[in-house]
Amino acid sequence: MTQRRYLLAESEIPTHWYNVMADVGPPPPPLHPGTGEPVGPDMLAPLFPMALIGQEMSPERWHAIPDVVRDIYSMWRPTPLHRALGLEAALGTDCRIFYKYEGGSPAGSHKPNTAVAQAYYNQQEGVTRIATETGAGQWGSALSFACARFGIEVKVYMVRVSYDTKPYRRAMMEAWGGSVVGSPSRDTNAGRAILVRDPHSTGSLGIAISEAVEDAATRDDTKYALGSVLNHVLMHQTVIGQEAQKQMAMAEAYPDVVVGCVGGGSNFAGIAFPFIAEKAAGKEIRIVAAEPSSCPSLTRGHYGYDFGDTAQMTPLLAMHTLGHGFIPAPIHAGGLRYHGMAPLVSKLVNDGLVEAVAYAQNDCFASGVRFAKAEGIIPAPEANHAIRAVEAEVEAARAAGESRTILFNLCGHGHLELGAYQQYLNGELVDSELPQSDLDAAAAAIAGMPAIA
Amino acid sequence: MTQRRYLLAESEIPTHWYNVMADVGPPPPPLHPGTGEPVGPDMLAPLFPMALIGQEMSPERWHAIPDVVRDIYSMWRPTPLHRALGLEAALGTDCRIFYKYEGGSPAGSHKPNTAVAQAYYNQQEGVTRIATETGAGQWGSALSFACARFGIEVKVYMVRVSYDTKPYRRAMMEAWGGSVVGSPSRDTNAGRAILVRDPHSTGSLGIAISEAVEDAATRDDTKYALGSVLNHVLMHQTVIGQEAQKQMAMAEAYPDVVVGCVGGGSNFAGIAFPFIAEKAAGKEIRIVAAEPSSCPSLTRGHYGYDFGDTAQMTPLLAMHTLGHGFIPAPIHAGGLRYHGMAPLVSKLVNDGLVEAVAYAQNDCFASGVRFAKAEGIIPAPEANHAIRAVEAEVEAARAAGESRTILFNLCGHGHLELGAYQQYLNGELVDSELPQSDLDAAAAAIAGMPAIA
Q1: Is some CB atom of chain A closer than 8 A to the CB atom of B89?
Q2: Contact state of B1 with A108 under an 8 Å Cβ cutoff
Q3: What are the pLDDT digits (tens) for A38-84?
Q4: Residue spans of beta strands (DSSP E) within A39-198
Q5: Could you tell me if A445 lies within 8 Å of chain B, comparing CB atoms?
């Protein structure tokens, strides 16, 4: 029998997070929207503990993972690397396909990797309450779980369309003690302002971020936590790629191409950044980011400065953006419905180190169902974008007469999104083209923003 | 850091299933209801492939696991053994608590261990369609997954109350290609007869078994598969306990007590039977089966012959039973809503080798939420009964001034039952006493059955 799963011992949980900025340089700095000056640590202090602000701006290559965090990681880490023998057979390919599976974590995705770290640093600095946003609910679940371990209260602003279509996610957050409200909500000025203009708003990550930031900025006992986008969040996820490097070596394989789906960028960064280090050092390897065609920030967006949120409360970030006013179609991959992109991922795409591709929802669910039948795991709708990109690689390899080794991140399971699968199986999902005129209109709103030097 | 998880390599997947009958003898034989004579292999042939009938009646201690089955097992096996450090801390105990976690399988429970084996033997004998029943949906999911791998069509009769309250389970079965109907259904004589008497029947495993057996018995292309109760099904689950024995040795621990929840008996058998062998050989170890107080076959039922189903289509089985007409309250632990019990488990209780306990639904959910907060895994409602029993062991150890080593089977996750957790958290679950008069009435219906010699 060919080996399917490559497991590491608990002692092989990485001891450090890897900071890709040490190898590729930092992205252009966040700017204060009023002055246009780079944002200093003091401006972020109302929102984040100082330890995380330090990580956000650090030039150091390695950051030691605190023992308490590693101990909690050991509840599910190291995660397995799977050889996708079933999918290879179903696709009739001689490519070797591997996937790192993060769905075995408490919340069912990669998100606890940073949630536990963030909860820890907040507790160390005496924080007793955290406000956050969540798209599909993966991040809100992860933070509720993590904060339960540190005795920290959590308020989750959940994007309305997910709040309505994913009731089990809410139950999961509440089982861990989190408090959840649909966003836009009546609990913040930002939410109320949106509801005045659009009482039936389906919400977006941009809106939910505005609400959570306002909550944290207006309460002394509360800080804010973000599940993606920021440098320190992406760094916490690099445990994924570091483990995958060891496990690929166990399999006596090295990837020709590494694939991840992207919304804010965190699971992609987790699998990809440790390989970016090797690519930067001269290794021949391609790295592909897969996004939804209904929210195509990397493939059809503008690379420039923009707000991270809809209500213009955050600093300006240098990123690929569709404009902070862009509201994506209510696709089921809620975690990918973000108008912008992590500045680090944007920089890597701009520098040519990462390729970007985009796929439509129905194609991605078709890939997800094929994967479920072949591999037994029902993927999160977000992860289906990565699987679709893997299938495209297999087709490209076939056309080129090559056998490629492909590694991708299966960032979560889809157990709480089975309603979406039911809709797909019933033929109820409709893909609509995103007209260029919509993107032009959204881009016009950010025409006056600073350019990236 | 104390080690939390004990992992085995793929090569350590057991090579054989363990047949407890070799050590404790077979249970009293199934009887033909008309003649009162023991049932022979030929009578079972319309329902099961001969290989499984052979296993059902085998005196051999070890049965080799086919390579194809072991290869599919390797998609999730060996499963991890966890030290419950979080729960130990939450309970403030110096008992050591370990759990074998079967929730990482495709269907999210232990059920694929036998589903894959059954699908394999059916395929070997040319079967192209299988009919089955499912309670909470765990078994139907597992069989849909397994049959997808062997190209076998599946029809699932799903207990009505679960069909209505667990829509995601249905989506999971359909994603794997299964066909699902609520039971009692209009697709069988047995179902139609029940609906005439009670159009709003919430169903039961006993009714759904009748429907699936009728389906298989009346179609040439179809055989029947059962997810629990029968000797061969329980034997397939012994991979759980065999792995746990190795993993406990890795942890340098040996259980004073082994705990599992029981409905039909299969996950309990999986963890317990390999330890029964050691107990039979003189090892001092207690083994506890935990059932719901609303369906207390072991603790308040009668040990005698009864039908395995409601419509009286099966042979008579020697077991603890509440009577084949007993319809349990619609608790969320649908997998435990069975009027009878595996003959092998019943025999072991009768022989004094296994202790039985019963707990109410709200107490079990309280234990489940405590476990979720402490260990990060949200358990299946069935498994909460085992956790409640573990907590009782901890209290008993405290009262006795002892430190005990406890091993239990966490047979599945509760991701698809989060609606039940929501109801529990909202205080909407009501425990009602099961009056003795109800049990007496159900028992009266089986008063004329043969006694066990």
Answers
A1: no
A2: no
A3: 999 999 999 999 999 999 999 999 999 999 999 999 999 999 999 99
A4: 62-64, 81-83, 96-101, 129-134, 153-159, 179-183
A5: no
Chain A partners of B416 at a C-beta cutoff of 8 Å?
Answer: 168, 415, 418
Domains in chain A: boundaries: 5-9+67-108+233-437
A335 neighbors A252 (Cβ within 8 angstroms)? no
Closest by alpha carbon to A415, among B425, B240, B156, B378?
A: B378
The CATH number of the structural domain formed by A5-9+67-108+233-437 is 3.40.50.1100
Give the helix/strand (H/E) hosting B365.
Answer: helix B361-375
Total-model pTM:
0.95
Query: Judging by DSSP bridges, how do beta strands A62-64 and A129-134 pair with one another?
Result: unpaired
**DSSP H/E element including A260:** strand A257-261
Q: In this predicted structure, what is the pLDDT of residue A350?
A: 97
Q: How far is CA B320 from CA B18, B232, B235, B298, B438, in A?
A: 23, 19, 19, 6, 16
> What residues of chain A, 351 to 390, have a C-beta less than 8 Å from chain B?
369, 372-373, 375-378
ipTM: 0.94
Residue B1 is nearest to which of A67, A176, A415, comparing CB atoms? A67
Which DSSP category does B27 fall into?
P
Residues in chain A with CB shorter than 8 Å from the CB of B418 are 167-168, 171-172, 175, 416
Q: What is the CA radius of gyration of chain A?
A: 20
Place of tokens 């009692």: B184
Taking CA atoms, B438 is separated from A278, B293, B323, in Å, by 70, 13, 11
In angstroms, the CA A36 to CA B88 distance is: 53
Residue A200 corresponds to which amino acid?
H
Interface test with chain A among B168, B387, B416, by most A beta carbons within 10 Å: B168
- How many Cβ atoms are within 10 Å of B149's Cβ, its own excluded? 22
Instruction: Tell me which residue of B403, B390, B407, B392 sits closest to B254, measured CA to CA.
Output: B407
Q: Which residues of B touch A148 (CB under 8 A)?
A: 373
Q: Which residues of chain B have pLDDT under 70?
A: none
* Interchain CB contact of B422 with A (< 8 Å): yes
Q: Which residue from B minimizes the CA distance to A366?
A: B175
- What integer pLDDT is reported at residue A445 of this predicted model? 82
Which residues of A are less than 8 Å from B9 in CB distance?
7
Residue A175, chain B, CB below 8 Å: the answer is yes
Smallest CA–CA distance, residue B64 to chain A, in Å, is 16
Q: Residue A377: which of B9, B106, B112 has the nearest Cβ?
A: B106
CA gap A151, A141 in Å, rounded: 15
Task: Report residue B427 as tokens.
Answer: 């205080």
- Measured between CA atoms, the residue of chain B closest to residue A374 is B149
Report the alpha-carbon distance of residue B343 to residue B353 in Å, rounded: 14
The minimum CA-CA distance between B104 and chain A, rounded to whole Å, is 7
The total of other beta-carbon atoms located within 10 Å of residue A398's CB is 16
Smallest Cβ–Cβ distance between A416 and the set B5, B71, B415 belongs to: B415
Segment holding A439, helix H or strand E: helix A436-444
**Which amino acid is present at B29?**
P
Q: How far apart are the first and last CA of chain B?
A: 55
Comparing C-alpha atoms, which of A356, A274, A349, A317 is closest to residue A446?
A317
User: In this structure, are residues B123 and B147 in contact, taking their beta carbons and an 8 Å threshold?
Assistant: no
3-state DSSP call for residue B239? helix
> Could you give the angle at the alpha carbon of B404 between the alpha carbons of B403 and B410, nearest 5°?
135
Task: Please write the tens of the pLDDT for every residue from A162-213.
Answer: 898 888 999 999 999 999 999 999 999 999 999 999 999 989 888 999 999 9
Residue type, A272: A
Whether the Cβ atoms of residue B289 and residue B319 lie closer than 8 Å to each other: no
